[in-house]
Structures are given as structure tokens and as C-alpha cells.
Description:
The protein is mainly α. The chain has three helices and no strands. It has a domain at 20-60. Helix 1 packs across helix 2 and helix 2 (32-43) packs across helix 3.
Amino acid sequence: MNVQRAVLRRSRNDRVLAGVCGGLGEFFGISPFWFRLAMFIAFIPGGVPGILIYLIAMFVIPSE
């Protein structure tokens, strides 16, 4: 049985900044809009939590 596993990568095609939300959307099989909305909500309380999460994800998740 050949089971293909999804690999978490930053998207090159569906990107706004670094492709983090596009890659998460492809990995989980949902629209990247929901990840972008979550990041936007995380930016609201002063910006630091959202920016920190995004920067960590940008460096940890490899590019396609």
C-alpha cells in the first residue's frame, strides 16, 4: 500500500508574505484564508504575539 503523506512546506504559489499561511492551508487541506484570519487576529493585541508566531513559522517551515 502506497500512502502519500502531506509535507508541511511554505507555499511558493499561494503566498502574501512568506507563504506560511498558504503552506498551512495546503497541509491541512483548507483555505489559507482561515490561517490568514487567525494571524490577523493574533496581530491585533499589540502585534507581538502574531509577529512572533509568524516569524518562527517562517524560519522553521522549509520552502517548497
